[in-house]
Amino acid sequence: MQDFEVQRCTRRCAASERDLQAGETFYSVLVAQDADVTRLDYSVSAWEGAPENALGWWKSQMPCADARKLNWAPNDVMLHYFEQLEGQEEKADVRYVLTLLMIRRRILRLEDTEYDEQGECMVVYCPRKESEFRVTVVAPEEARIVQIQDELSQLLTGGEQ
Questions:
Q1: Which range marks the domain in which residue 95 is found?
Q2: Are residues 150 and 120 in the same domain?
Q3: pLDDT tens track, the chain, 161 positions
Q4: pTM, entire model
Q5: 99 and 135: one domain?
Q6: Do 26 and 2 have their domain in common?
Q7: Phi, psi of 116 (to 5 degrees)
Q8: At which of 9, 32, 66 does a domain end?
Q9: Same domain, residue pair 13 and 55
């Protein structure tokens, strides 16, 4: 597994080169370009879907200048919810997305990727609990993405958006 830094939002549409406005919805995509990973941001009107070489993509909203900073739940709350999700097959996609969020926030550390008869599994380590966890990679279907975003937002930010 290769580590890389994800650059901040460019605040410009990669296709039209116009500035993204406060409150405007936009898409971001990570693409591999040679040995680098590049972030590209697109306005909704310019978004034609993720390119074939995309490593990942997401939908966001440009923050307003007067917007309050988003306050995430404490790390212990995230870890508790993460542990509650273990074994809940109907929430496997939520647990996977939460794992990615916690890796990004450096609550968990990706140690390895394993493959078995059920598919791909991430092995993550939690320094705070001195524990290792296995998380099945369950990429959510298109219809579930917004549901998962809303669920995690409600649980982990107290409903602030």
A1: 75-157
A2: yes
A3: 455 566 788 899 999 999 999 989 999 998 887 777 889 999 999 999 988 888 888 888 888 766 666 667 788 888 999 999 999 999 999 999 999 989 988 999 999 999 988 789 999 999 998 999 999 999 888 888 888 888 887 777 655 54
A4: 0.60
A5: yes
A6: yes
A7: -140, -165
A8: 66
A9: yes
DSSP letters spanning the chain: ----PPPPP-SB-TTT-PBPPTT-EEEEEEEEETTEEEEEEEETTT-----TTEEEEEEEEPPPTTPPPP-PPPHHHHHHHHHHHTT-GGGHHHHHHHHHHHHHTTSSEEEEEEEETTEEEEEEEETTTTEEEEEE--PPPHHHHHHHHHHHHHHHHTT--
Number of domains present in the structure of the chain: 2
**What is the number of residues in the chain?**
161
Q: What is the largest CA-CA distance in the chain?
A: 50
Look at the block and give the residue holding tokens 């969020």.
Answer: 101
Can you read off the two tokens belonging to residue 51? 């390119």
Which residue do the tokens 């097959």 mark?
Answer: 89
- Return the ∠ at Cα 28 (arms to 79 and 32), rounded to 5°: 95
